[in-house]
Amino acid sequence: MNSSPVAVITGASRRLGLLMVESFLQADWRVVALTRTVSDELKALACERLECVSFDALSADNIEQAINHIKANYAHVDFLLHNASIYEKDAQHLEDFSDFYDALYKIHMKTPAQLNRGLEQLLQTSVRKTSNIIHITDIYVNNPNPEYALYCSTKAGLENLMISDAKRLAPKVRVNAIQPGPVKFLPEHSGEDQSKVLSETLLAVEGGFEALEQAIWSILNNEYMTASVIRVDGGRAVAR
Q1: On the CB side of 56, how many CA atoms lie within 13 Å of its CA?
Q2: Distances from the Cα of 155 to the Cαs of 80, 146, 200, 201, 238, in angstroms?
Q3: Does residue 73 sit in helix, strand or coil?
Q4: Res. 186: pLDDT tops 80
Q5: Which candidate, 8, 38, 171, 231, has a CA 20 to 30 Å from the CA of 133?
Q6: Cα gap 169→88, rounded to integer Å
C-alpha cells in the first residue's frame, strides 16, 4: 500500500485550488484534483502523483461517481479542501434567482456535505496522526454584504457544517474553516473597485493565494486545532 498522504482538492484548475495542487505535489503528497475542466496550468503539473477526476459540483450523481472512484483507488484520504465556489452579486441573477440560489447551495453546502460523508471512512484511516478537512468560507459570514446576500448565506451554512462535522468526526478527523478577505482580485474587478477594497483593509495590500497556502499548512501542522475559524484578510473584517 502506498503510504504517501493523499489530498483531495475541489476547484483544482485555477486560483487557490491550482496553487494548492502544486504545493502538495512539492511536499510529496499524492493529489486528487476534482475539476470540471482541466486547465492548461493543471495539465502542466502532470505527474504520477497527480490524478485529475471529472467533477461537477452541481451534480449529485457526478459527485457520487467521483467519491466511488476515490474509494476504489485509494486506501486513505488525509486532507480534503473545499475550495470550489461561485462569487457573484445577487443583482446579476434577478431573472434566474431560484436557479442561482440552488447553485450556490449545491456548491457551497450540499457538495461539501456529500464529500465529507462519502469520504468519511477513508479520512478515518489516514496515514497521518489526524486527517483534515478545511472549508474555505468568507469574512462575509460574520458581516454579510447585502449585494452578495445569497452567496453570504450559503457560505455561512458551509461554516456551520464545518462545526457540525468537527463534532461528528472527532478525534481522528479535524475540521476547520478559513475566511479569506481580498487575497486575490478577480479579472473583472476594476482599479476603482480594488482601491476601495484596499482602503477598507488594515494592511492595504492584496494578500495573494500564498497567504491562504500558509494558513492551510499551519492548520495541517497543528494537531490541536479543530472547529476553528481562521481569518486571512489583512484586517478587512474589523475595518469595514
Answers
A1: 7
A2: 17, 14, 21, 21, 19
A3: helix
A4: no
A5: 38
A6: 32
Q: Give me the pLDDT at residue 1, please.
A: 56
Contact indicator for 115, 70 with CB cutoff of 8 Å? no
Q: Confirm whether pTM is higher than 0.90.
A: yes
Q: Are 232 and 179 in contact (CB under 8 A)?
A: yes
Q: Is 116 helix (H, G, I), strand (E, B) or coil?
A: helix
Three cell numbers, residue 212: 491562504
The Cα 85–Cα 87 span in angstroms is: 6
Whether residue 141 contacts residue 159, with contact meaning beta carbons closer than 8 Å, is answered with yes
Residues in the chain: 240
Do residues 174 and 130 lie in contact, with contact meaning Cβ atoms separated by under 8 Å?
Answer: yes
Other residues' Cβ atoms within 10 Å of the Cβ of residue 150: 20
Sheet holding 6-10, edge to edge: 50-54, 30-35, 6-10, 79-82, 131-136, 173-180, 229-232
Cell 469574512, residue?
139
Per-residue pLDDT reduced to its tens digit, 98-130 = 999 999 999 999 999 999 999 999 999 999 999
